Amino acid sequence: MAWVDRLKKGLSKARLGFANSLGNVLKGGKKLSADQIEQVEEILISGDVSARLATQLAESLAEHSRQELANGGLMAVLEGEIRERLQGCERKLAVRSDGQPTVVMMAGVNGSGKTTTAAKIASRLREDDPKMPITFAAADTFRAAAIDQLAVWAERIGVDLVRHSIGADPSAVVFDAIDHTQRVGGVLIVDTAGRLQTKHNLMEELTKIERTVTKKLGRGSDERLLVLDATTGQNGISQATKFHEAIDLTGIVITKLDGTAKGGVVLSIWDQVHVPLLYIGVGEGKEDLHEFSAHQFVEALFEN
Question: What domains are defined for the chain?
Answer without folding.
Answer: 3-85 (1.20.120.140), 102-302 (3.40.50.300)
